[in-house]
Amino acid sequence: MVAQSAISRREQTSRVITRCAQDLAIEHGFDGFTLDDLAERAGVSRRTLFNYFPGKEAAVLGVPAALDTDVLRTFVAGGTTDANGGRLLEDLAALVVSTYTREDPDRADWHRVHALFERNPRLIAVAKERFDALVSDVRVAAEEREGLPAGHPRARVAVAIIAGIFHDSLARFLADEDIDFPTDFLAGVDEATRLLR
Signal sequence span per UniProt (predicted)? Predict the structure, then answer.
């Protein structure tokens, strides 16, 4: 119980630091604030900042999204798919929703990140590297689940389809207050599954 509350406090502090770093980068640009400014805004010491993040870029971008071990294990154990790949797409979608809703981001969080990249476009390349690493992990998990060799088209194409639907749903979510991201994303995956049959 103590360990869980300590983890929760650590995650909460990490999120506060990242939100403050993002706000400062939006307000002043990435180069327009110091780590001292960030420490003051977040209400922590400079030393505490370095206990959470190795530098300003990491603080602004936050902890990279990672696949939950239990969810990943369930996904890999899902077995091979039918000839049309339907189950693979559906299970990949569940993996994505689990990963991107684990921290329960709200619309303001997504808009903040969008504004961050508009104001600081050079951070897009770093965020893309992080996203690409996550996509690679998902592809490897799909290959393992399906018993496929590395780089096999089934896993590669399935993950590309899911990534495309993710980007489309995120853009729709940011543009329309009435759209719920997980619902729209899963509807897109359902449509793709029907189209591929």
Answer: none
